[in-house]
Amino acid sequence: MPELQEIKRTLSRIEKLEREVNLKQLQINSLLTITQAINENVAADGLFNMYSSFLRWEIGIRKMALFFKEAGRWECMSFSGFDERLLEYDVNDELTHFRTKQGVEGSSHPLIREFDLVIPVMHKNEPIAYAFVGGFGDDDDVYNKVQFVTTITNVIAVAIENKRLFKQQLRQEVLNREVEVAAEIQRTLVPSRLPAGKKYQLSSIYKPHFAVGGDYYDVVEYPDGKIAFCIADITGKGVSAALLMANFQANFHALITRRPTLEEIVQELNAAVYRVTQGDKFITLFLAKYDPTNRTLHYINAGHTPPLLLADGEVLPLKNGCTVLGWLPELPFLEIGSLCLTSEALIFSYTDGLTDVSNKSGEEFGEEKLITFLRAHTALGAKELNTKLLAHIEHYRERQPYPDDITVLTCKVF
Predict the structure, then answer these.
(1) Which of 29, 240, 313, 315 is the most exposed, fewest CB within 10 Å of its CB?
(2) What CATH code is assigned to 2-164?
(3) Distance between CA atoms of 62 and 68, rounded to whole angstroms?
(4) Fold of 181-413
């Protein structure tokens, strides 16, 4: 009889080995099928269905739930073996506690306590998926089953994450191309060449903080020799500011060619901006007309950083005007500034991105340093002055990033 007992034990070991071999074969086949599906670029929903099917029917996992992050929150993408109504319970606060594979039998959460084990999938020390499994029987080879579930969950999670990153990359490439097109269009909205006369010089600096920006400048030369010029700063940065700038440029050109008064131009621009923004965004503007024949300068400053007039050794900020454009449906006040430039003068207009430039110590360039620079270089022509100013700013910022768009419009009159 001892021989019979030994034979039975041997047969039992053989049966156990056969079950283990069959399980391993199932695992290998499942992994091959999943890998093939990934290579064939099966959609995420298809991979989730395959995952659920393999765990339930091939491996014998009675309860499972697989969570991925969607729009910043953990969502169950595949499940089986429990009441679907349990998914109504939020698990986001609970999942933050799980960083390694561990048991969850003692959890007080109505959904999580349905399971025996949680398997986090980590990437660069951050979780990208969570698998919950449970319902193991007494005869289950729990260790081998958990090892396979861990493997297949990692394979699925990495594949889904790669799909997400690929789609994100495609969206970013499309966005980058759209921004490039917007930047190309925006460059056409500012003058590529500025007019020049015997009695005046004009030069500009235009450096958007991003590919597109919210600064604007323009110059119009009339047949009788007079010129109108402006500089503007739209609140905000990036594409939204650029779109508002494009709308502003179209309105400005439509108005300036009709040659209405400065007051009429500013009133109509304010109404146009308010129609678009309803007061949520606004534009600062400095608009001026100069007559070289009688050397008169008329201007309106609509809440813009005051341009600096340097003449006869004095520095005069050009402040007369009104409030910003687009803040109110009608301007509550408006004052036109008028000057007669009896001698050589420099009209330096700029956006506040210039004076906001900081060095490594966090010290801003500021208006005072700007005035000191301009006083020292007033004798230069408009283009040479701007060239030296840009080099001076580059040196001053000590490779610190530009904080904002920078636009300068320099007008030298003789």
Answers:
(1) 313
(2) 3.30.450.40
(3) 20
(4) Phosphatase 2c; domain 1 (3.60.40)
